[in-house]
Specification:
This protein is of the alpha+beta class. It is built from six helices and three strands.
């Protein structure tokens, strides 16, 4: 598990074998799944592990002020499973603006590219094809020109 996979480190009391024991609880992400690891060990060892993990994760945490409110909102929407086209619509952003925010999330290691959206325009051959198809189908081009 990498330092950036850890989301929480805390001590807790758990029942283990009918005894109340202090354990170190570490929440982390493993292969896209949120996992909880419980560490049961002597108190001095637990203090060393907790101190080491806390120091390591604190060093690499993103500070709240490093991201704007809109960047935090975009990260939350992505976490919720909302696609980029819907995010653009919800927040009133164009593709280039959203891409800029996503690049910053990438820079901080908060996001990664999983799919690149292709923007295309018709070639002259494509324009002619559409015009011919529209003429055959219903005179759609004339209707569009009049509008």
């Amino acid at each position: 598990m990498g330092y950036d996979d850890i989301s929480m480190i805390e001590r807790d009391i758990r029942t283990i074998g009918e005894k109340e024991r202090t354990v170190l609880v570490v929440n982390h992400v493993d292969r896209g799944e949120v996992m909880t690891t419980l560490i049961l060990c002597p108190e001095t060892t637990m203090a060393l592990i907790e101190g080491y993990l806390t120091e390591l994760t604190d060093k690499y945490k993103i500070k709240d002020e490093e991201l704007s409110n809109i960047e935090k909102e975009i990260a939350t929407l992505i976490y919720s499973g909302i696609d980029s086209i819907t995010i653009e619509s919800m927040l009133g952003l164009d593709l280039d603006t959203l891409s800029g925010y996503c690049e910053k999330l990438e820079k901080f290691g908060l996001a990664k590219v999983v799919k690149v959206r292709k923007e295309v325009e018709l070639t002259p051959k494509g324009v002619n094809f559409v015009r011919e198809s529209a003429k055959k189908d219903s005179g759609l081009i004339d209707q569009i020109k009049e509008a």
